[in-house]
Amino acid sequence: MNQVSLAEPGRFEFITNAPEPQLQPGEALVRVHRIGVCGTDLHAYAGKQPFFEYPRVLGHELGVEVIDPGSEPGDLKGGDRCSVEPYLNCGKCIACRRGKPNCCTSLSVLGVHSDGGMGTLLAVPARKLHRSTKLSYDQLALVETLGIGAHAVERAEPTADDFVLVIGAGPIGLSVIQFAGITGAKVAVMDISESRLAFCRDHLGVKHTVVAGPAAAAELTAIGDGDLPTIVIDATGNPRSMAGSFELPAHGGRIVFVGLFQGDVSFNDPNFHRRELTLCASRNALPDTFTEIIHLMETGRIDTTPWITHRCALADIPTQFGVFSADPTLLKCIIEV
To answer: Which domain holds residue 272?
Structure first.
């Protein structure tokens, strides 16, 4: 079968004779139709992804078709269109026992810690397949990205009375914006890119956008009718932005870090205590989150149509990945298999 492997930073290999997967008990065989490219893939290509080894087959945002539902199919059958939950958890550790398989102590994420779906066929646990009879393969490939944002909002626990600031208007930030908006909270978006802020206004209906800089806190206070945001969700993965986020929540507020970088975050402890802030990390998403996102997409409450800015064929990845990854207009590239 055809497969693409990231041999080392900056270099992909297209393989035409990769071995076909052999099913293990509980696994299903799927044909990959669409692959979403996310920040993790871009960082791996650039050699900046933590917890990563080369060579690696990327691909964890997947829209797939069931070929063989395997020995424990549940209600799966051949031909089903599915999104893949790429978080392979043990089911036994304290996190799994307490309903948090997204941060299993031995978690393996497809395309990051183990080989993913950047190829023709893939074997995955049948329980990690989330079916839809209505969504296209393009839409199914975007469910995992949406899950990252949805879980960050779950961690933030906003209500209609909250004022939520989303920092970073990249793909993860966009998904945070959509789920924060569903809660009825007031939402503002901050970014260094005016074009990305314009996208939020024009395509997501965001009323309040702020260019990051020295005047941001004052602008946010004006948007909040005299108060800073009660919730700040940082989706940048930028150390300066994350450290600066401690200055932006109202007293008694909450910060959620959904972005990730290789290093330490420092903050001023008196400021942190004076405001009695709550700091949360957000990792991956929960199984029920996938189910809910598919329902929201099927009923039209979540629209991903404006997200896809680039497309690429599987065979063209070695020559084109570096091109579109350097394009400042990139939001989401969909790889067609």
So the answer is: 149-281
